[in-house]
Amino acid sequence: MHLIAFGINHRTAPVAIRERAAFAPEQLQSALSDITTHGGANEAAILSTCNRTEIYCRLDETDGRQTVKWFCDFHQLPANELQPHLYLHPDQDAVKHAFRVAAGLDSLVLGEPQILGQMKTAFTAAHKAGATGKILNRLFQQTFSVAKQVRTDTAIGASAVSVAYAAVSLARKIFQDLAAKKVLLIGAGETIDLVARHLREQGVARIVVANRTVERADLLAREIGGEAISLAEMPERLAEADIVITSTASQLPILGKGAVESALRQRKHRPMFMVDLAVPRDIESEVGTLSDVYLYTVDDLQDAIQENMQSRLDAAREAEKIINIQVVDFMHWVSSLDSVPTIRALRDTTTAVCEAELKRAQRKLARGDDPQLVLAQLARGIANKFTHAPSDALKKAGHDGDAELLEAARRLFDLGDDL
């Protein structure tokens, strides 16, 4: 029995390759069925996200070549195109890789928590499809336990390490009830997309997305349950916003001091929290001089991010220690499985001996033999039957000078060293 984890991720493959190797949700069930039928895997689970596609397998062959070939064939990817980007971790390394991925140690953003949920979804899909068994069930359950321990015992996810998350964290510190605030997001690119998702995670329901291209704003707004407006509408909606976060590609400021002053008058000078994540800046620097505005730029967040990243790196070192211990624990469990058939055979043989001797004793009792004598014969018969084969093997070991077997027998039967 062998475990492997193989695939590609954001470190090893460009997005053009990752796109071609991804599994769509509607493909998962058929893919899991196919890999366990034709791909050489006895058990399998598929993890497919925007940053990685990985397959965790239990198989009989040692190198996983058949399973990797299945992966290439399924996606119609020539092996020579995929091979430079592919990694394959066998046995203990596969276990360690699973633990590290779930703990966020292999993520684009160190310590990010989303990957754990994605792994749980992947395992659930594989389990429902009947593609997992004793080994992968135990592997993933321990993987989730390790990830929880890492997050509980270290500070791996305690600090913001992206400007999007840092902006939302700062807003959370300023406003006691962030969920009750209305947010205006200006832009609809990747950074604003991340900001929007972090806001939703914090319970913020009222979000307006303003963008030069309304269609793009509408796409994001529909994903988060917000409202989309054009950039031209933004000045008249500005007064509604308690929080303004902006990140566009404009070469000139799109929000000036005059527009903000007008909004503050409409708000009766209730404070506004503003974060400008754009370079060049989207908000005129003079806006920061207004007494009812708290304006932060991307530079204001960088120092905190660098400090937090160092904190996560320190936590990651602690996490690696936890993972190394847990890998050893899992591999000990796997090794113990090799003894299960032997233990079962020993129990079956012992049971058969006992039942045969018991039936013999019952026949003697039925014909009226002395119960005390029958019991003594029962005990002696069981002992003789059980020790017959080991005794013969030990006699032969003594004759052949097989000291290892003799020593093993002492340990197995707890005979001590003074015999």
Account of the 3D structure:
The chain has 419 residues and is α/β, with parallel strands linked by helices. It folds into three domains: 2-153, Beta Polymerase, domain 2 (2-Layer Sandwich), CATH 3.30.460.30; 163-303, 3-Layer(aba) Sandwich (Rossmann fold), CATH 3.40.50.720; 342-409, no CATH class. 56% of the residues lie in helices and 14% in strands. The chain has 16 helices and ten strands. It has helices at 15-21, 28-37, 65-74, 79-82, 91-102, 114-128, 134-153, 163-174, 190-201, 214-224, 234-237, 257-266, 298-336, 340-366, 371-400, 403-412, and strands spanning 2-9, 41-48, 52-59, 87-90, 182-186, 206-211, 227-230, 243-246, 272-276, 293-297. The strands form two sheets. It has a six-stranded parallel beta sheet. Strands 2-3-1-4 form a four-stranded antiparallel beta sheet. A hairpin with a 3-residue loop joins strand 2 (41-48) and strand 3. The two termini are 39 Å apart. The model has no long low-confidence stretch (mean pLDDT 90).
Tally of distinct domains = 3
Q: What's the Cα radius of gyration?
A: 33 Å
User: In CATH's first tier, which class of the largest domain applies?
Assistant: Alpha Beta
- Backbone structural class: alpha/beta
Q: What's the main sheet like?
A: 6 strands, parallel
User: Which regions are unreliable across 5 or more consecutive residues at pLDDT < 50?
Assistant: none
Order of helices and strands: EHHEEHHEHHHHEHEHEHEHEEHHHH
The percentage of residues in β strands lies in 5-15%
Tell me what the CATH architecture of the largest domain is: 2-Layer Sandwich
User: Can you count the beta strands?
Assistant: 10
Secondary structure: helix percent: 55-70%
For the residues shown, what is the average pLDDT?
90
Please count the helical segments.
16
Q: Report the principal-axis shape.
A: elongated
CATH superfamily of the largest domain: Glutamyl-tRNA reductase, N-terminal domain
> What fold name goes in the CATH topology slot of the largest domain?
Beta Polymerase, domain 2
- Side by side, the strands of the main sheet go 7-6-5-8-9-10
Distance from first to last alpha carbon: 39 Å
